[in-house]
Amino acid sequence: MTDSRKVGVLGGGQLGRMLIEAANRLNIQVNVLDAAASPAKQISAHDDHIEGSFKDAAAVKKLAQNCDVVTVEIEHVDTHMLEEVSGEVHVEPSWKTLRTIKDKFAQKEYLKEHGVDVAESVDLEGKGAEGLREVGNTFGYPFMLKSKTEAYDGRGNFVVKDEGDADAAMKALGNRPLYAERWADFRMELAVMVVKTKDGVLTFPTVETIHEDSICKLTYAPPRNVSKETAGRARELAKKAIGAFEGKGVFGVEMFLLKDDTLLVNEIAPRPHNSGHYTIEACPLSQYDAHLRAILDLPIPEAGLRLREPAIMLNILGGQKTDSHVQVANKALESPNASIHLYGKGDARPGRKMGHITVTAPTLGEAEREIQPLIDFVDDLKG
Ligand code: ATP
Ligand code: MG
Ligand code: MG
Predict the structure, then answer these.
(1) Is the ipTM of this complex over 0.95?
(2) Global pTM?
């Protein structure tokens, strides 16, 4: 590989770190904009990283000046500076895409305009507790109150169970720009990683995701008790959703599979995604390989995105103790088919993503049997 192009990435968390793992194998230099010693910088020794915040315009500009392509591992970035530098450097995906997606309400309106089914939503900015009661009258209870911006791992969501919850909801989220979503009474959640290239839109297989306390806990590839037809429809819906946006790279599409088998898009991530970690071990190309290749216009053979072997991914979340993630990783060392990823985040905080484990096996049943003791261990730690 003689690619001398430099990739700049806004954000140096675990997704940036795994992107660098893929880039390192191709001798591609990745310049990271984030705090010193962030997870991504720890595994990349060169002098072109930028120390600062991906929300800071001057820092984004500085990063762009020394890169051929700028991409993101988080959507909560300064898209105005990305717009400004897009004349001089490739920004993938497009700043327009990032600006629409980083506002979850704008994202949903955009998807609706492009014929993609999403949960019905209502703007609540400036409406206060009274607005919540009005939504309750129209949507019924429960409904989901969401922050339009800066949301991740459920931090920004509040389940409004009845009229009496309005004040608690405003107390939790009242200082943020809000919207409400009709409750999706789903049978399960599915996700698809989509790859947008210069030539078209490709997909990885459909997976099942299990969330606990609004944080992704497990991913099953393939999904359990889902027909081929439904899994295929999920891929088509994900393709349609991402086809509506400008720019190249991988995108995560989270979906609800309702009890009548209808699919709704929950939300989109314009970057590698937790539900795609399994691709590192289970597919010939990982979501990180695919992202790099897509933004650099390198070949992506479609068969490289297939599931080679069933896989289950378990997130290692921070627990009550600062080293609980280390205990989980140590336990996983005993498991022959478990690939362990720790992110180098230092001390754990409850609910923080500290690492993940992927077990692959010839059948999903075997993978389930192998990972079950680890799931039990994680549940016991949580108490
Ligand atoms: P992420 O870390 O994936 O970015 P987030 O903070 O943006 O998460 P959402 O994806 O909006 O949060 O919601 C988190 C979870 O909450 C969903 O995966 C789902 O389990 C539940 N949820 C969200 N919206 C609804 C809804 N309208 N009805 C029912 N459950 C919902
Ligand atoms: Mg989100
Ligand atoms: Mg989500």
Answers:
(1) yes
(2) 0.97
